[in-house]
User: What shape does this take?
Amino acid sequence: MNQSTNKSAAERYLDHLDQIFQVEPEFYNEVSQIPGLPAVTAIVYKDIPKKGYTTAFTYGLSLATHPEWKLGRPELCVCVASDESAWAHVGAYIANKLRGDCPFLYGETINFGTRVSPDSEMDAFLVFAPSILEKEAYTNIYVGEDYRINIAGLYPIYQEEISVYEKIGLKEFWHHPDFDNYSVNRNKIVL
Assistant: This one.
């Protein structure tokens, strides 16, 4: 029997990430908020894509369901120019708190409500395609289940920027001179 057919969805997803990054990640679990569902895990790659950066993915969000998930189920990715440990954990924390309730659709914002990390004043997120991966690496990921995984990027923003984003839209916000999707200390975008 083919050994790959015996792999769990989690193992297949981790294999997918390992093929991309080819380094051993660190793992952190959030205690599940939903009875019967396993913990949400943070899969953390230090110094990816370069030294001083933190890139973290979730696994466990896709184990829940949401009526808006028609083309697959999401997992999250945070990639920032910081080695502060809070950034490694925040995606799993958000996924754990909001799974089943939030669809994590591209263009949505999430008000975190407090500073994410001691090295930043940012306290909210914009959900969009993960800039660290090519499209074929973050969409339609086969995990051996009756659904596919699509990775959504969580980009730190300032809560005050949510209203600016809602006024100017995704394209203008993303291309604003003060927007740097990896920076945790950039200037606030104001109108």
